[in-house]
Amino acid sequence: MSDPPKKLGPFSSEANDAAARLERITGLWQRLQLTRAHTPKYNALIDQIRAETDAFRKILDAKKGLGPKESKD
Predict the structure, then answer these.
(1) Which residues span the domain enclosing 52?
(2) Number of folded domains in the chain?
(3) CB neighbours (10 Å) of residue 18?
């Protein structure tokens, strides 16, 4: 009789956070499609998308070992 397949460990908190942010970004884009352009609600959604995208990018960059651009003075 063979052993049962090994279960993979839980994702890291960074991976969970990245997945949640990506899902939120997708939801915000879907809401944006249903919103009239150039209204306060539309602009607020754009701001939320930008903020979530920046946070998502920081998670990915940290995972790759990248940090903010540093000047070489």
Answers:
(1) 24-63
(2) 1
(3) 20
Q: What totals of helices (H) and strands (E) does the chain contain, helices first? A: 2, 0
Q: What is the pLDDT along the chain (73 residues), one digit of tens a residue?
A: 555 544 444 557 878 898 999 999 999 999 999 999 999 999 999 999 999 999 999 988 887 876 555 544 4
Asked whether the whole model's pTM tops 0.90, one would answer no
**Torsion, Cα of 13, 16, 21, 24 (10° steps):** -140
Tell me whether residue 16 is in a domain: no
- Contact assessment for residue 51 and residue 9, using Cβ atoms and an 8 Å cutoff: no
Contact (CB, 8 A) for 19 and 56: no
Q: Per the domain annotation, does 59 fall within a domain?
A: yes
Q: Answer yes or no: is 58 within a domain.
A: yes
